[in-house]
Amino acid sequence: MNWWRSLSRRRRGEIIRIVIYVIFGLLVAGLVGVIASRWDIVQDALLKPDLIKGLFPEIITIALKNTIIFTALGFGGGLIVGLILALMKISPYAPIRWMSTVYIEVFRGIPLLVWILLIGAALPLALGIRFTGLYTKGAIPLGLVAGAYMAETIRAGIEAVPRGQMEAARSLGMSYGQAMSSIILPQAFRIIIPPLTNELVLLLKDTSLVSAVGFTAQGVELTRFVRNAVQDNANATPMIFGGMVYLFVTIPLTQLARVMERRAARAR
Amino acid sequence: MSEAAVRIVDLHKSFGDLEVLKGIDFEVQLGEVVCIIGPSGSGKSTLLRCVNRLEEPTAGQIFIEGEDITHPDCWVDDVRRNIGMVFQRFNLFPHLTAIENLMVAQRKVLNRSKDEAEKVAMANLERVGLVDKAHEYPINLSGGQQQRVAIARALSMEPDMMLFDEATSALDPELVGEVLSVMRQLAEEGMTMLVVTHEIGFAKGVADRVVFMDEGIVMEEGPPSQVLVDPREPRTREFLRAVLEEGI
Ligand SMILES: Nc1ncnc2c1ncn2[C@@H]1O[C@H](COP(=O)(O)OP(=O)(O)OP(=O)(O)O)[C@@H](O)[C@H]1O
Ligand SMILES: [Mg+2]
């Protein structure tokens, strides 16, 4: 212990870091060793090449495509809902602001999965509604909930635009709506592109929850698709590969968001 | 009888408990240039902002060319499109180029075609000497150039009257002249102007009338040769001395 105390702070730091590297290295090496020593078993259970081959092309042409469609519909719907909620939140009329707050709290406070089950299965059953369109019953809860999350982001963006912008626009005779749509919102959205991109990534992952309700073979998204494949083959390979397909989309998106965030920070 | 461009009658404005305007009365005739001077916090900006209803007056009336703009039936957007306003901090739209700044309200409010709006915008950029900057974004312009674009933007709506709220106060000293000369030229063209300024020299040279405000009232008003050279009120004299000392 005396020996430890006699070291300089910098030296101690170095030693701690070396210890961490060694532990981490041993763990990785051990894991790789175990996998390598039983490679045929591991590969057979988790990464079977012909099973992977069997996923194509549907995993891209149907499953990934549908995941992207659900994401796009949810995001587009969320933007519209979120924009309306954000505009209500900055209204001078208190009841309008409250309505927005209530919506946001309710849709954020109940899990997305519950909304999906409610809107996609329970309500149609109870009320005898039939959704037309391949994606409707998944896209509606995604959009309604995404909107509740985006509302605060959009409002923050609107409020980040200097007051003088609205005043200048109004002093030229523009109405509140005209000033909002052609002066304030374009600036606000530029400010919030990075956080919105992060929300896009979250939403993309959350589309996996719509797998909880049934879709036709043409309507399945990635998670449901690989889950079916797992069941058909009694093998985990499709699920592992499905995870990789998600990463293939989400990593570039998060990197993009990070680059834009950094650029925005520098512009300020 | 021809109506005054602006007639203000017993105007009051409070922010909460703070009464900023305590009964203002004065008129601006068509084609007249009136400069408002006064110490910081005396309510000059508030008065100007009441004239195009960026602030809601608490009491009193404001008539623009005979129309009571404080009346509940009055449509503020119609009032504002006929009154140009120039701000201390320019307030150009940063996501639009200079010419787009001049075109957006023409297109939305006056429903002008793109070609027509562009023609009017170019003519007004010409007026302020910035045709070569038409396609620059505001961030690439100097403060003086930005303020001239802001003036051209207001002029593109072809207003009957212009309000200037310390249009040169945010500028580096060497850039003040170019903005004042645009304002001078506008005055010579016969524009009705209500100008809040600390530029006593400009007021002397250009104003038809000077209004001295202090603590929410009009202390003194008259021709510049009287108010600025030989003021009646001791407060005015004191203020002018302070401003002139600051200028040295
Ligand atoms: N929106 C507001 N809310 C509360 N108080 C305000 C508001 N706007 C102005 N005031 C107050 O009203 C008073 C007058 O302000 P005003 O901006 O009209 O003065 P001014 O004569 O233009 O001063 P300056 O020369 O500094 O621009 C100040 O005390 C200011 O703090
Ligand atoms: Mg002011």
Structure, explained:
Chain A is mainly alpha-helical and 268 residues long. Chain A has a single domain (57-267), classed as MetI-like (MetI-like fold, Orthogonal Bundle), CATH 1.10.3720. Helices cover 82% and strands 0% of the residues of chain A. Chain A contains 12 helices and no strands. In chain A, α6 crosses α8 and α11 runs antiparallel to α12 (237-267). The two termini of chain A are 49 Å apart. By secondary structure, chain B is α/β, with parallel strands linked by helices. Helix content of chain B is 38%, strand content 24%. Chain B contains 9 helices and 10 strands. Chain B has helices spanning 44-51, 76-81, 98-109, 114-127, 143-155, 173-188, 200-206, 224-227, 234-247, and strands at 6-15, 18-28, 33-37, 59-64, 67-68, 83-86, 161-165, 192-196, 209-214, 217-222. Chain B has a 6-stranded mixed β-sheet, with helices on both faces. In chain B, β9 (209-214) and β10 (217-222) form a beta hairpin. In chain B, α3 (98-109) crosses α4. The longest helix of chain B is centred in the C-terminal third of the chain and has 16 residues, at 173-188. Chain B starts with 5 loop residues before the first strand and ends with a helix. Chain A binds chain B through residues 162, 164-165, 167-175, 178, 182-183, 186-187, 190, and chain B through 52, 54, 77-78, 80-85, 87, 89, 91-95, 104-105, 108-109, 150, 153-154, 157. The complex binds adenosine-5'-triphosphate and magnesium ion. Residues 44-45, 165-166 of chain B line the site of magnesium ion (MG).
